[in-house]
């Protein structure tokens, strides 16, 4: 309407427009009227004829049509029609301009723009988003130890096993907090197969005919039944440990393997024993003076994640799938025992001497040291609920970072779930308040997720990933895990996709230690920070399915004690008192630091115009694998030319590696030389960055048969590590080695890398297929 009023005023005041010549003058005495209207594009033709020998002074005079004095009906109609037409046009221009300002999305740059039309030109006025230093300051100011103490009290629970009433109560609390913060919320329900202890009686372990005692702890997804065999001590149950037993000419066939917790997951221990034909596995807590001799141990032995009875697809209750089970389910029995029970067994074992450093155990066990294991666990279908809240972005709301924490636990689970849930909710409160009251406008969205059934192998999170696989890896550009973020003091450890290493390093420089004497990064100054901080990505890491199944760059981190693992995870002793004792009562302050670290990563990813994911980091990892494969192929060709012909060249794989390296470098150069004020350009570059992790998922294997499809950090025959292991088997002419299968895997891995390079390069005409 302002535009309409302005236009009408200009009409009656005789102000000319830049694109027309229009003047309506009303004689104040009422004697006559003049109407002057001429499109400027027609002026030269109508004034001065064809322009040859024209009078320039005359040409500058207005073209006037004189009318007799007085108003005729015809002239009045003409005037009314003209005014009405101009009013309508002016109104539409004003309306559309106003709507355009309301609907125009903010720019990808550090400014949003407001348009105003003045005399036919467009004027751009910048409205900058919040400065990054202000974002960090607000995050720090709004998080405090006292707020975490309150959150600990609210979300602590003595009983909240997945699918239980206690789990549901906590879910409602989290959902209520998200709603209180004004977030859009929703839930995600799944009917999954979980495992309970025996409905009547208990699992049993006898040694030389004597019952070892009551077993409350158990291992979910163990095979049920009874197994009997001679006990054999296997240290941590790693393949290197079991090879040492073989080197002593000790066969594992039919033996009951006794191992201690730690180093690798329970599932890997059982899988390793099953490969060597053991009949059962007993696992006890690693010898630690902090843990009681009667402490019961809980866990799961599914070599994978998610519901093992719906592998690769979601367990929604409205869908029906044919009966199927994960190949990661164990084929042998597994059961936990206490330290006291393990001591009873090892004290009476005979046989060969144990290697030095194997936990103080003297003998490995003889054929007469018989053990019977009986497992009667119950498989039950239960409803689990994941809870979500979202803070929507202002530029690309359909792109989001996810922060998540498991909500369930075997017992109190203070370190395993309560602290992580508290950090999740406090971050949701803090960032929501920044948006609502401080004017912070994230470009992209932040999703907060409270998972159920995390103790059973990231079941809730994996089912969500499986349910929305086709859309998540196109829109979720990162996942930040908050499980177990405080288990000790003061060492900081992290595991992540290589794409996130540079961002992790930058964030470590910004988060202070508890003493404020320096940053987390300065604490490892003088060292190789990656060697000091970063850990290998393991199968039981909660971020593992996000990276290897869905292709979403992810990070896990925790404060811990150097050289020690928190001994109470997976036990009923994971209490508030135990964690406070292990951290010198610094849990709340450490939770603040954990919140600052996670919050800074998330906010940096949604604040800046470009995603801070370093695609060049994968180049070194690919080259390391390729170098190893190249040297091993040459050895096999030299030792067994009949297996791998000389015509098999590593050149194709090396060329694909070079293509990826050039594409990554080219993108970095393109970013440096681009106008990052261009919103469409930013989105295009971010899409290419997001595609990298996803494109390392092998397209040649089934998500159901091989869910962890990532060729660099996944598991299965399609990975580069599997190629290297296959070459080791070919070198010794192992019975499992298959040269033809290797060549197929080799070719498919090559083209997976090349495909990732092509996608990273951008348009199809920018691809580099020099193979």
Automatic annotation (TrEMBL):
Record keyword Glycoprotein present: yes
Matches recorded under InterPro entries: PA_dom_sf, PA_domain, Peptidase_M28, Peptidase_M28B, TFR-like_dimer_dom, TFR-like_dimer_dom_sf
Function: Cellular uptake of iron occurs via receptor-mediated endocytosis of ligand-occupied transferrin receptor into specialized endosomes. Endosomal acidification leads to iron release. The apotransferrin-receptor complex is then recycled to the cell surface with a return to neutral pH and the concomitant loss of affinity of apotransferrin for its receptor. Transferrin receptor is necessary for development of erythrocytes and the nervous system. Acts as a lipid sensor that regulates mitochondrial fusion by regulating activation of the JNK pathway.
Coiled coil: none
BP GO annotations: intracellular iron ion homeostasis; receptor internalization; transferrin transport
Protein location: Cell membrane; Melanosome
Domain Peptidase M28, residue spans: 386-513
Gene that this polypeptide is encoded by: tfr1a
CDD domains: M28_TfR (cd09848)
Domain PA: 242-292
Pfam families per the UniProt record, alphabetical: PA (PF02225), Peptidase_M28 (PF04389), TFR_dimer (PF04253)
Lineage summary: Eukaryota, Metazoa, Chordata, Craniata, Vertebrata
Signal peptide location: none
Subunit structure: Homodimer; disulfide-linked.
Coarse class of the protein's main subcellular location: membrane
Keywords from the UniProt entry: Cell membrane, Endocytosis, Glycoprotein, Lipoprotein, Membrane, Palmitate, Receptor, Transmembrane, Transmembrane helix
Record-annotated membrane-spanning stretches: 76-96
One Gene Ontology CC term in the entry: melanosome
Protein name per the record: Transferrin receptor protein 1
PANTHER family registered for this protein in UniProt: N-ACETYLATED-ALPHA-LINKED ACIDIC DIPEPTIDASE, TRANSFERRIN RECEPTOR PROTEIN 1
Topology class, membrane: Single-pass type II membrane protein
Molecular function per GO: transferrin receptor activity
């Amino acid at each position: 309407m302002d535009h309409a009023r302005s236009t009408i005023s200009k009409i009656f005041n005789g102000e000319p427009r830049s694109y027309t010549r229009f003047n309506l003058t009303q004689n104040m005495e009422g004697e006559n009227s003049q109407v002057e209207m001429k499109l400027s594009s027609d002026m030269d033709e109508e004034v001065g004829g064809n322009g040859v020998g024209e009078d320039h002074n005359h040409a500058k005079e207005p073209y006037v049509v004189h009318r007799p004095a007085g108003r005729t009906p015809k002239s009045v109609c003409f005037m009314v029609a003209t005014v009405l037409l101009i009013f309508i046009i002016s109104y539409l221009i004003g309306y559309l301009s106003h709507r355009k300002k309301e609907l125009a999305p903010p720019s990808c740059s550090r400014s949003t723009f407001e348009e105003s039309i003045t005399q036919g030109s467009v004027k751009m006025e910048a409205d900058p988003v919040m400065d990054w230093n202000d974002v960090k300051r607000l995050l720090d100011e709004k998080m405090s130890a006292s707020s975490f103490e309150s959150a600990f009290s609210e979300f602590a629970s003595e009983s909240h096993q997945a699918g239980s009433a206690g789990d549901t109560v906590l879910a409602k609390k989290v959902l209520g907090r998200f709603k209180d913060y004004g977030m859009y919320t929703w839930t995600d329900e799944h009917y999954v197969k979980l495992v309970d202890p025996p409905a009547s009686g208990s699992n049993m372990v006898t040694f030389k005919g004597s019952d070892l005692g009551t077993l409350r702890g158990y291992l979910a997804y163990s095979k049920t039944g009874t197994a009997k065999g001679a006990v054999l001590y296997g240290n941590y149950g790693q393949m290197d440990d079991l090879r040492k037993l073989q080197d002593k000419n000790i066969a594992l066939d039919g033996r009951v393997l006794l191992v201690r917790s730690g180093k690798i997951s329970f599932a890997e221990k059982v899988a390793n024993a099953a490969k060597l034909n053991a009949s059962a596995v007993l696992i006890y807590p690693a010898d630690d003076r902090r843990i009681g001799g009667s402490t019961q141990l809980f866990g799961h032995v599914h070599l994978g994640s998610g519901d093992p009875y719906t592998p690769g697809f979601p367990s929604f209750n409205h869908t029906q799938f044919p009966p199927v089970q994960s190949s990661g389910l164990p084929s042998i029995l597994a059961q936990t025992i206490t330290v006291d029970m393990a001591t009873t067994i090892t004290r009476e074992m005979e046989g060969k001497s144990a290697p030095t450093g194997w936990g103080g155990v003297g003998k490995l066990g003889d054929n007469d040291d018989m053990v019977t294991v009986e497992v009667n666990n119950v498989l039950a279908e239960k409803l689990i609920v994941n809870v979500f809240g979202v803070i929507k972005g202002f530029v690309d709301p359909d792109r989001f970072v996810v922060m998540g924490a498991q909500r369930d636990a075997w017992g109190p689970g203070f370190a395993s779930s309560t602290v992580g849930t508290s950090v999740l909710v406090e971050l949701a409160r803090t960032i929501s308040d920044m948006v609502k009251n401080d004017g912070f406008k994230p470009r992209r969205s932040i999703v907060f997720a409270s998972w159920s059934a995390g103790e059973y192998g990231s079941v809730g999170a994996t089912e969500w990933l499986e349910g929305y696989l086709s859309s998540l890896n196109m829109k979720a550009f990162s996942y930040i895990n908050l499980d177990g973020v405080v288990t000790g003091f003061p060492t900081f450890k992290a595991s992540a996709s290589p794409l996130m290493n540079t961002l992790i390093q930058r964030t470590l420089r910004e988060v202070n230690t508890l003493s404020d004497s320096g940053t987390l990064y300065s604490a490892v100054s003088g060292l190789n920070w990656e060697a000091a901080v970063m850990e290998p990505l393991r199968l039981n890491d909660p971020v593992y399915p996000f990276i290897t199944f869905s292709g979403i760059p992810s990070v896990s981190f925790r404060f811990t004690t150097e050289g020690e693992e928190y001994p109470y995870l997976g036990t009923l002793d994971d209490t508030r008192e135990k964690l406070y004792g292990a951290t010198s009562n610094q849990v709340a302050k450490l939770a603040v630091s954990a919140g600052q670290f996670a919050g800074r990563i998330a906010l940096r990813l949604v604040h800046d115009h470009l995603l801070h994911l370093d695609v060049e980091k994968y180049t070194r990892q690919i080259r390391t694998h390729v170098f190893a494969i190249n040297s091993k192929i040459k050895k096999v060709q030299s030792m067994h030319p009949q297996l791998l012909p000389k015509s098999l060249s590593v050149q194709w794989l090396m060329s694909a590696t070079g293509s990826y390296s050039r594409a990554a470098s080219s993108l970095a150069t393109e970013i440096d030389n681009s106008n990052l004020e261009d919103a469409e350009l930013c989105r295009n570059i971010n899409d290419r960055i997001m595609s990298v992790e996803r494109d390392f998922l092998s397209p040649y294997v089934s998500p159901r048969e091989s869910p962890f499809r990532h060729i660099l950090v996944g598991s299965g025959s399609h990975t580069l590590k599997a190629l290297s292991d296959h070459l080791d088997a070919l070198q010794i002419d192992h019975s499992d080695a298959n040269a033809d299968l290797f060549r197929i895997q080799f070719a498919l891995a090559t083209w997976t890398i090349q495909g990732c390079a092509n996608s990273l390069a951008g348009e199809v005409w920018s691809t580099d297929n020099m193979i």
